[in-house]
Amino acid sequence: MAFFYVTFYNNSKTRSKKEDKMQEVIWHGRGGQGVVLAAQILGEAAYLQGFKGITSAPTFGPERRGAPLTASTRISDEPIRTVSQIDRAHIAVVLDESLLTMVNILGRLKDDGIIIINTRLSPEEIDIDGNLDVATVDASGIAREQYLTVAGTPVVNTPMLGAFARATGLVSLENIEKGLRIKMSGGMAVANFSAVRAAFEKTIVKATKER
Predict the structure, then answer these.
(1) Structural domains of the chain in order of their starting residue, each with its CATH number
(2) Which residue from 84, 86, 95, 186 puts its CA 20 to 30 A from 58's CA?
(3) Residue 173 exposure: Cα atoms within 13 Å on the Cβ side
């Protein structure tokens, strides 16, 4: 049986650009890929961006390293009081493209949502039906180029934050960098942000609608 806990961020700041609805994000990855940390860093960045309501919630179950798992982030211009798991998200961030054929990711994504995928393919090469915006970036390749690896495995959770910023426009690179520095030591934050910035620049977005 899975269970989860929620981290709340309370913010009295006002944002220069008001968002008219809550944005719900589900992070899809595998054990050891850092989906929980990515969800938390996004929460920190959204807080610094001036959103008034932010929650971050990992979901735990009988996982093992390499097994599929999720984490979530809610971002709103108004305080958030819900603590339930996200049923269908506005945004899905996929750290391992093989999960697209193993997990019902699209079934947990709203029909007009955004899916952001770590893949070497372009959005046009991704076989996804529906009214979705599709963004792709080779986060694994970027991590290797930036020498951002652990035991030879590329670190993809932080580059995907750069892809998130590019595809959604909800948080700035500046605030992602600040969020990284909250969660990581100085040298580690610098190395990870270099990959974040590279992923932001290399993310390709295929938009089906104006947001």
Answers:
(1) 3-206 (3.40.920.10)
(2) 186
(3) 16
Residue 8: what pLDDT?
A: 53
The CA distances from residue 124 to 40, 106, 127, in Å, are 30, 17, 8
Type of residue found at 38: A
CB contact at 8 A, 93 and 112: no
| Cα torsion angle, 105, 178, 143, 185, sign | negative
How many of the other CB atoms lie within 10 Å of CB of 121?
Answer: 14
pTM as predicted: 0.89
pLDDT digits (tens, 9 = 90+) for 143-182: 999 999 999 999 999 999 999 999 999 999 999 999 999 9
C-beta contacts of 83-87 below 8 A and 24+ residues apart: 83/6, 83/55, 83/57, 85/4, 85/57, 85/59, 86/24, 86/25, 86/26
Range 190-205 burial, b when 16+ CB lie within 10 A, else e: ebbbbbbbbbbebbbb
